[in-house]
Design brief:
The complex is a heterodimer of chains A (1105) and B (347). Chain A has 1105 residues and is an alpha+beta fold. Helix content of chain A is 44%, strand content 18%. Chain B is of the alpha+beta class. Chain B starts with 42 loop residues before the first helix and ends in a 20-residue tail after the last helix. The N terminus and C terminus of chain B are likely disordered. The chains are: A alpha+beta (1105), B alpha+beta (347). Chains A and B meet through helix 9, helix 18, helix 26, helix 29 and helix 31 of A and helix 1, strand 3, helix 3, helix 6 and strand 9 of B.
């Protein structure tokens, strides 16, 4: 299946393909009501309520006014529909903004400014610098003579460096005026979401010379949502438009997320539903039996001898309606309400405002805050999430002299500055390499400030550092580089770039010094790629040591080298290089081979160390969250050793001997399989050990593992608390999330770039860092925060409180519904099992809507422990993770309490209002008052912290209860006319209330007190400690690794000291493994196992300071 | 806790690029920092709470019991002796026949009874709260003459032959109690019994129309209970109004009238009853009750006993907790209980 795009042909492709209108909307004006209703009714709960409401329209069976169900039902539906409608309108507005953006498009041979939505496949689109690409384009021309342009793809894949895109060879050298008239056909695949592939070909029509098919790759495209940078203009033909672009295809519909709590509440609702059915059946049968045996004797009931055919159903249906309140209709509304308040609390939180940018945290998804408290796995991106994505040159070692060791910043090292000022040749050479051995483009702003555009942040950092040490890379005019060194201008002519590839791990530049005409080769790269190329006899030992030392500090290291070439050598090599560059087969390999011929006999100048700074508080945040029992996986597109380095420096994995890294590498199935099994074996053995074992896997091996050894990998995922996955693609990230979700873990994915979007959407909770890299991830995420460290607060404070509050609120909702329902059931036993409602419609409705909802709603302010205590004892999160506060057991407790309270209320009411007092309306109000009084005390007992609002809500609600009833009692038409005044004048009424409260709450209080004091949970202990101001505050660091604690041991010290000699246990296992080598980070271990630029031995950071 | 508290601005970092206009404004509510009182269940609080309940409840219980004991109550079941002895069906046949149903009895006053003495009739096993029964009435019709035809809720006693509406309609009115009692002292002096003001004033004024007169009542083929004088408006038919206040329980008392003279201990009272109301078909009991009232109403020991029981139980709980507290003291918030044990993998 192919699509043929006719370039610049206005007529041909219009109907075939969609226009460039982007639409993320779910509804249209017309289908909103039916579609929304349909969606709402696909929920079981709503169907149930609708059924009940319809049944209530049948007067024969309805116990109360149907309005008492229809009112809330319509209200609920209106609320959800309004919310959906508003969300959809917001999407519509943002789509509209994108669609109506104006772009230059060639129409009838000339450029016209049209709206982005009118772009059709085949149109020629012109972009200026810094324009956003409106749809997927195949590049045809640029302002640069070499036919390249630079794009920023961060919105697409999260990578912030500039990428080079080039025009297809067939279009080389076409004049920009001629481009208007270009005609041709592009044969390309159907739209897909793979942003790394574009296998197409292009054939230009005469008069454009090249009539051959010209192959196109992803290198020749610029994709939607990228930005054109450092290029005056670029022009391309639209191949995919609208929702069919690579970005549009990969967007996907985000499934509405259901929290674990919602699932549990649904389960409990199901259980209550079954219970209700049982009750209905039992009472229905009892009612029919009573009717047939007893009721006919009661002449005053005038039961007809023959009933209609459905007679047997009437009593069960009545009970069904009577018991329908068992499932509180208000629970959904209350939950939605409190959930949006949780979300607001996140939005409002001052402590989660990123002070650098002023961005507050934002909860886009308001429905899943409880899940934050139940997170078990955090999958995090690295660059930009853990790190600041700001590379800074920190230290260097030039010709054996260390700079920057004293103050930690080589740029400010006086000795280095002196060396530069005095013109020390080594230092100057070093600086020169820093300044010009790169592909950086300096850009001079009108105000004269030079900024640098670099493909790699490292290069930018080096150039910047060189500039601040008076080696200022000022400008680049085609091949001439201007360097301003201490006020004097030095010019270099670039002869060749020996590009960086991940195999070569180094890059070089050949330049000619314009003043002396000397040709110089400048190289920089990873130590293992540069140091072996030193000329024979060169002492590289000091540099190895330097690299080691820097790597141990978690710095990225580069070795810089230099060699003067003589003219002949260069010319000879240059020919070979050109030839290699034009080969069609195995070009990369040929080029690398040729490059290697030049990059030899180098004079090593020194080692530069660059820091990718961790964000503030990342190690502490990770440590706190790990203490809270959350497992971390790092998923990064970055190189393995960089990932490991970062992992070490942010407490992600512990250093040897506490931690252990297991590598899974391999390019073939066999290798991966072998590695996987070895790692698994080690994991199983280590499981019982107090050891931090993490596995490291790269994207290639991961793909094989996921495809062929899914089971083994799943086991590994379950066993491992920590994992580092490097070189993974966005879809692999999403797959890993899915894998963990499949294992029934609650996952949180956090990332900052477009490449994290899919994992963020896939995870139970997606968190986006709204930082430097645009808002792509933040927009797709459920929560966006400014800095990684806010995650601690998000989870431990907001997540935990939300969980606790919802746990109380939902169970309480069931409790109060069950309470009143049980009373109805009991009453049916004294009313001939006929299904009479003790309570009138007004009371029933108000009971659910006012009397019991308001006090419990303020439980959103309840805090069982102070934020400080939670932060000091993150382990307490365990109660939320394990769902200790909402599960069938706790629910059974509430169920029992409802039953007990119903018995108390009913028994006391009918006994104190017996005989001459047993007037229906009065008894009904006494029972209702009893319920309302009890629930006020239940809420009081279950509230941990009383703010003024709690008092107002709880006691105010009681007052409001009386006021409402007094008002209703003042209406002569209402059934309960004067009842409440009558009751309030009776001493018996108040006696009954106190009796109900004392009898109902006494046992509950006694039980709670007993548990609280003698069977206390950790929460209770912390509460006691916190409120009594005990010494417990100092015990914050009682045990840094929850996992390492033996169950019977109380003294943390004995555990955290690893027993010596344990390491050897694993040695034989791994010694014969070629790939899954055990990586040891001990002080004595200096293995050379990372085949890349820096070593990853680890010392505690401050060891050499 | 550097990861929670907002760190000072890094001097090296770039100045704030933009100040977001949506920056949250500070308030104690939004930051969830409202001052809160956080009580915990310390032994002192809990034990004293239980003691307070004891201290409050025992006197109230005693007072209630005392009040209840002061009430003089005479209960006389008459459905049994006012009907011929024999099987139930005999009694049913008797009550449904036209025979003279007058019945006499004498009551001895055990204690001095101060006026007003309330005369109740008590029905047992009578389901005024049955769904079929409670719903079968029309409050509209009772209140307003214009709603005479509003009998849709009154089935099956809504109309005669399906055309003429019954006023008052419905099973409740139809099955009105129709036994009568008259009292005289030993020396045949009639004891006057006041039937005025036995219903709720609010009912008379607002629930029953002054211009609504009974119509077609008990005219059907089935005669239920009492007949009504068609010349008296509903608002003055106090027996009906009392009866229409349906009882919530199958055993209930309804006010028949008031005797507004004191009765001395040892007085004997002759009661002449018309035993018309059929409770024999469903084994219901009928009782005549004479009772004085206290501030808590009629004789009811339940509240007093319950208060004493609850007070006593709270005392026991308080003592138990005190004992446990003394025998096995436990320091609250003891950090030694704070160990974070959990299984290492997959909880």
């Amino acid at each position: 299946m192919k699509r043929f795009v006719y370039v610049n042909d206005d007529d041909l492709s219009h109907e075939l393909y969609c226009d460039n209108r982007v639409s993320n909307r779910k509804y249209t004006l017309l289908n909103f009501i039916p579609k929304n209703l349909w969606e709402q009714f696909s929920r079981f709960m709503n169907q149930y309520f609708l059924l009940i409401a319809c049944l209530q329209l049948w007067p024969l069976i309805t116990p109360v006014n149907p309005a008492s169900t229809w009112g809330p039902l319509i209200f609920i539906f209106a609320v959800s529909a309004t919310k959906e409608g508003w969300d959809d309108y917001c999407r519509y507005v943002s789509d509209k903004k994108a669609n109506e953006k104006e772009v230059w498009v060639v129409r009838e041979g000339s450029k016209k400014l049209i709206q982005a939505q009118d772009i059709h496949v085949g149109n020629l689109v012109w972009l200026r610098e810094n324009d956003e690409v409106p749809c997927d384009l195949v590049l045809l021309g640029t302002s640069e003579s070499q036919g390249v342009c630079y794009v920023e793809t961060s919105a697409l894949d999260g990578e912030t460096d500039l990428k080079t895109r080039s025009i297809p060879p067939a279009c080389m050298g076409i004049d920009s005026d001629l481009l208007h008239k270009i005609k041709g056909v592009i044969e390309c695949p159907k739209p897909d979401k793979d942003i790394r592939r574009f296998d197409a070909n292009l054939r230009l029509f005469p008069p454009f010379i090249d009539n051959d098919v010209c192959p196109l790759t992803i290198k020749n495209t610029i994709l939607q949502s990228c930005y054109l940078r450092n290029t005056d203009w670029a022009c391309g033909v639209a191949v995919y438009t609208g929702n069919e672009t690579k970005l549009g295809m990969s967007r996907g519909v985000a499934e509405p997320k259901l929290t674990a709590m919602d699932a549990m509440i649904d389960k409990l609702t199901g259980a209550i539903f079954i219970f209700q059915i049982v009750v209905v059946i039992v009472l229905g049968i009892a009612g029919n039996v009573w009717k047939d045996t007893e009721a006919r004797k009661h002449w005053y009931l005038l039961y007809p001898d023959e009933g209609p055919w459905y007679e047997l159903l009437i009593i069960p249906l009545r009970f069904e309606l009577l018991c329908s309140i068992m499932i509180p209709i208000s629970i959904k509304v209350s939950l939605d309400l409190v959930k949006s308040l949780y979300a607001k609390f996140i939005d409002w939180d001052k402590q989660m405002v990123d002070l650098d940018t002023g961005t507050p945290a934002n909860a886009t998804n308001t429905a899943i805050s409880e899940d934050l408290g139940q997170v078990e796995y955090i999958l995090t991106d690295k660059t930009g999430t853990l790190t600041e994505n700001k590379m800074i040159f920190k230290r260097c070692c030039i010709a054996g002299t260390y700079f920057g060791n004293e103050n930690g910043d080589a740029v400010k090292d006086v000795e280095l500055l002196n060396a530069i000022n005095t013109g020390s040749p080594d230092a100057v050479k070093f600086l020169t390499v820093m300044a010009i051995c790169n592909t950086v483009i300096p850009i001079k702003s009108p105000s004269g400030i030079v900024s640098y555009k670099a493909q790699s942040q490292d290069e930018e950092a080096l150039v910047r550092a060189a500039a601040s040490m008076h080696m200022d890379f000022v400008s680049k005019n085609s091949n001439i580089l201007d360097i301003n060194f201490n006020g004097s201008l030095i010019q270099y002519e670039v002869l060749d770039y020996l590009e960086f590839t991940s195999d070569r791990k180094r890059m070089s530049v050949v330049v000619r010094d314009c003043s002396s005409s000397k040709i110089i080769l400048l190289s920089k790269g990873a130590d293992e790629a540069i140091l072996p190329c030193a000329y024979a006899g060169f002492q590289t030992k000091t540099f190895y040591e330097a690299v080691d030392q820097y790597a141990q500090m978690g710095l990225r290291t580069f070795c810089l080298a230099w060699r003067e070439l003589n003219e002949d050598e260069y010319q000879e090599w240059s020919l070979m290089f050109k030839e290699a560059n034009s080969t069609l087969v195995d070009r990369e390999w040929r080029v690398a081979e040729v490059c290697q011929r030049l990059e030899r006999d180098l004079e090593i100048l020194g080692v530069a160390a660059i820091e990718d700074r961790l964000q503030d508080g990342v190690p502490e945040a990770i440590e706190t969250l790990r203490k809270a029992g959350i497992n971390f996986w790092m998923l990064t597109g970055d190189k393995q050793n960089t990932a490991i380095q970062i992992a070490l420096s942010c407490n992600f994995v512990s250093p040897e001997p506490k931690g252990q890294l297991l590598l899974i590498n391999g390019k073939t199935e066999d290798e991966v399989c072998r590695n996987l099994e070895r790692v698994l074996l080690t994991m199983r053995i280590t499981k019982a050990e107090p050891k931090d074992v993490a596995f490291v896997i790269d994207g290639w091996a991961l793909e094989i593992a996921l495809k062929n050894y899914r089971k083994a990998f799943t086991e590994l995922a379950i066993l491992s608390r920590t994992a580092i996955c490097c070189r993974v693609t966005p879809s692999q990230k999403a797959q890993l999330v899915e894998l963990l979700k499949y294992c029934d873990y609650r996952t949180l994915a956090i990332g900052d770039g477009g490449n994290d979007v899919r994992m963020i959407q896939q995870a139970d909770i997606g968190v986006g860092i709204s930082g430097r890299e645009g808002l792509q991830a933040a927009r797709a995420a459920d929560y966006s925060i400014g800095k990684f460290r806010f995650l601690t607060r998000l989870i431990l404070v907001h997540g935990r409180y939300s969980y606790n509050r919802t746990a109380f609120l939902s169970q309480y909702s069931f409790y109060k519904s069950l309470l009143i329902c049980f009373i109805q059931i009991f009453f049916s036993f004294v009313s001939g099992v006929s299904g009479t409602s003790l309570f009138n419609s007004v009371s029933l409705m108000a009971y659910n809507v006012f009397y019991t909802s308001v006090p419990v709603l303020v439980s959103v302010l309840d805090k069982d422990l102070s934020e400080k205590t939670v932060m000091q004892h993150p382990q307490i999160l365990f109660y939320c993770q394990a769902g200790r506060l909402l599960n069938p057991t706790t629910f059974a407790g509430w169920f029992g309490r409802a039953l007990f309270h119903a018995i108390v209320v009913f028994a006391i009411t009918i006994h104190s209002y017996a005989f001459e007092k047993s007037e229906m309306e009065e008894v009904s109000m006494v029972a209702l008052s009893g319920c309302v009084w009890l629930q006020a005390f239940v809420v009081t007992l279950e509230t941990n912290s009383f703010t003024i609002l709690q008092h107002v809500a709880i006691w105010g609600n009681l007052v409001v209860f009386y006021i409402i009833n007094w008002i209703v009692s003042a209406l002569p038409r209402s059934g309960m006319y004067t009842i409440m005044y009558r009751l309030c004048r009776q001493p018996t009424y108040w006696n009954t209330m106190f009796l109900i409260v004392a009898a109902g709450m006494g046992p509950v209080l006694a039980l709670k007190y007993f548990r609280y004091t003698y069977r206390s949970s950790k929460i209770n202990i912390l509460q006691q400690a916190e409120r009594l101001g005990g010494p417990i505050m100092s015990l914050g660091s009682i045990e840094p690794q929850p996992r390492t604690l033996d169950t019977d041991s109380l003294t943390p010290l004995s555990i955290s000291q690893p027993k010596s000699g344990r390491n050897s246990v694993f040695e034989p296992l791994l010694s014969d493994s070629p790939n899954a080598m055990r990586r040891s980070f001990g002080p004595g271990a200096t293995f050379d196992f990372f085949q890349s630029q820096s070593k990853s031995s680890y010392y505690p950071r401050d060891k050499d300071n | 806790m550097s990861n929670v508290t907002t760190p000072p601005m890094n001097p090296n970092s770039s100045p704030p690029r933009k100040i977001n206009s949506h920056r949250p404004t500070y308030s104690r509510f939004t930051q969830q920092e409202l001052p809160a009182c956080k009580p915990i269940l310390t032994p002192t609080y809990v034990i004293s709470a239980f003691m307070i309940v004891t201290v409050v409840f025992v006197p109230i219980g005693l007072a209630s019991l005392f009040a209840s004991r002061h009430v003089v109550e005479i209960v006389n079941r008459y459905d049994d002796y006012c009907a011929p002895y024999g099987s139930r069906s005999d009694k049913v046949r008797f009550i449904q026949s036209d025979a003279d149903k007058t019945c006499n009895t004498t009551i001895t006053v055990p204690k001095h009874m101060k006026q007003p003495i309330y005369v109740y009739y008590q029905l047992d096993n009578f389901y005024q709260n049955h769904r079929r029964y409670v719903k079968s009435r029309s409050d509209q019709q009772l209140r307003n003459k214009n709603y005479e035809n509003d009998t849709s809720t009154c089935k099956p006693e809504d109309s005669v032959n399906g055309t003429v509406p019954i006023v008052p309609c419905g099973l409740v009115a139809w099955s009105m109690f129709n036994d009568t009692f008259s009292f005289s002292t030993n020396n045949n002096v009639k004891l006057p019994i006041t039937k005025k003001g036995i219903s709720w004033k609010s009912d008379r004024d607002h629930k029953y129309g002054k211009d609504v007169f009974p119509k077609n009542f008990q005219n059907g083929s089935l005669i239920g209970g009492a007949h009504l004088n068609e010349s008296i408006p509903l608002s003055a038919q106090e027996d009906l109004i009392v009866w229409m206040r349906t009882a919530a329980l199958p055993t209930f008392r309804k006010l028949y009238g008031k005797i507004e003279v004191d009765l001395k201990a040892g007085d004997t009272i002759n009661v002449i009853m018309q035993n018309n109301y059929n409770t024999y078909s469903f084994n219901g009991k009928k009782k005549l009750v004479l009772s004085t009232a206290s501030w808590l109403g009629g004789k009811n020991n339940f509240i007093g006993v319950a208060y004493l029981v609850i007070g006593g139980l709270c005392f026991v709980l308080a003592m138990t907790f005190t004992a446990i507290y003394l025998v096995k003291p436990r320091r609250l918030g003891d950090p030694t209980y704070l160990t974070w044990n959990r299984s290492p993998a997959g909880h």
